[in-house]
Amino acid sequence: MITGGARNIGLAVARDLASRGASVASADICRNLETVPYSLATTDDLEKAVAELASFGGQAIGLKCDVRDESQVVSTVEKVIAEFGKLDILVNNAGVISLFPISDLTASAWNEVVDVCLKGTFFCCKHAVPAMIKQHYGKIVNISSVAGLRGLGLSVHYAAAKHGVVGLTKALALEVSDHNINVNAICPGTVESPMLQGLASQINLDRDAYEHFSRGHLIREQRITPQDIANAVRWLLSEESRFLTGTIISVDAGWLAGG
Ligand SMILES: NC(=O)c1ccc[n+]([C@@H]2O[C@H](COP(=O)([O-])OP(=O)(O)OC[C@H]3O[C@@H](n4cnc5c(N)ncnc54)[C@H](O)[C@@H]3O)[C@@H](O)[C@H]2O)c1
Questions:
Q1: Do β-strands 181-188 and 2-3 pair in parallel, antiparallel, or remain unpaired?
Q2: What are the structural domains, with CATH classification, of the chain?
Q3: What is the mean pLDDT of residues 54-65?
Q4: Is 10 a pocket residue for ligand 1 (Cβ < 6 Å)?
Q5: What pTM does this model have?
Q6: Do residues 64 and 29 lie in contact, with contact meaning Cβ atoms separated by under 8 Å?
């Protein structure tokens, strides 16, 4: 089960797993949020994603789910287990960002970012873990951000949420290790994404958005793509990484090397 699976990083992860024979459930909100300055995925995006995933020959389902709403998460997890018979993998990828100086950051802008990124990750873990305990197997990968390990400008809410995801990852890893469940997180640097243009317009940026938001990258000749994140997720889901739990991996073109 992959949240925010209708496009970009979530879709790259779903595609990567489907192409290797996994049954994949993509869960996505499929509507916009009031304070987020770019469009989120649509129902059409989710349908197209599922059609592409199914073309690999395995099972693929798309589920509309707002991860901020616990009852929607409960019914989504139930549907996935009803459809596939088990839930081996949870990738908590759904996330949103907006840019505001703290004095302009409204409670609703704070809530939308923190609730999608952090509360959504909590709800999905809460309702997936019992099934994983029952089957004595599970792999959870949470998508945090470099903003989960350092501060970035105009985004105290995003940094708070993504630091929270790092803390949740470590604490949950301790809690479920006896049940053969690995819980890890990935912190991407700037990844090519539809969100970058929306953020650029919020701060009236007049230069290339990727160039601007990836100023901290040490590796500058190439851009981080959604597939680069999917590659790291795949490794964390594989038996090759079986001794990793509670670990935070940065895929950030060296950004965090400078602190
Ligand atoms: N793109 C980057 O530069 C970057 C960098 C670091 C971390 N990240 C993180 O990676 C993840 C994916 O980002 P992306 O670049 O693919 O962004 P994106 O906006 O392209 O994709 C996010 C997906 O999440 C979905 N979503 C949003 N709110 C949701 C909700 N409440 N419930 C369910 N689905 C919801 C959206 O519809 C969208 O399909 C996010 O957690 C983001 O914070 C991205």
A1: unpaired
A2: 2-258 (3.40.50.720)
A3: 98
A4: yes
A5: 0.99
A6: yes
